[in-house]
Amino acid sequence: MSFISVKQIHMNCGWEIKVFPQTHLSKEKTETLVLEAFKEVKRIEDLLSHFKDSPFNNINKFAGIKPVRVCEEIWKLLDDAIEFSNDTHGSFNLAYPSKEEALRDHKLIRRDFDTREVYLPHRDMRISLGGLGKGYAVDMAYKYLLSQGVINFLVNGSGDLRCHSHERAPRPWNLAITNPFNPELTIGLLKLKNNAMATSGTYKKGQHIKTQEINRPISATIVADSTKVADMWGTYLCSLTCTEAVKKMNSSGLIGIIIDSSGNCFSSTKSLDAQKQYKDSYV
Asked: Among 152, 215, 253, 278, which has the highest number of CB atoms less than 10 A from its own CB?
């Protein structure tokens, strides 16, 4: 059965939305809804970009000058990112390298909860949501399509994925895991129905990952309920040793796979359970 596939470029990378034929929607209507979902991706890009003028980047623009009042959407994303930074003791860090390493500290970010203002107290300090922003855009496109009654679809933001399957769908989605040594290739498949998946790694452009030492993951693929959460976890796990990352995945009940610089693959206990459920989950 053929599906509708629409590809666009957003956030400097390729995106694709796939939708299986809808019994309750015409092909033309479905394509229109997919294009509207991409408009949501563009809206998030324009809202959160730190590469160009944007409401989020105004925080950086006025660093060391004055506080910036932000919209509720940015405030909530910042709150989630800072909370995760605190939970991971700064291993996940939205403050990225500047002229002074000491400024790469999320605890320096000042927030006024009454006025919803954000202030970076040093002129050279900078923050970015990084992959979290892309994951959030995937989630918002997914939620838009779902709100319009679309079923059995996949939103793929260059490896940040979220899929939907109707309860009567005949089979799950087969989602590929990128090979960190050659991003044009894959190392396996995950079978998902109504989940999100994201891959983080030191092989990508990622200022949120602090280390590239031996015995640390160069790639972490995480399955979660939202792409935003999967992105944050993947980024954090790449800052740990492989042993620590596996322990953290198991203690948090995550489905995840990490790969080290030697090509060794480590799976969480929950991933191994999924492999037993679908014998060909990993190839």
From this structure: 152
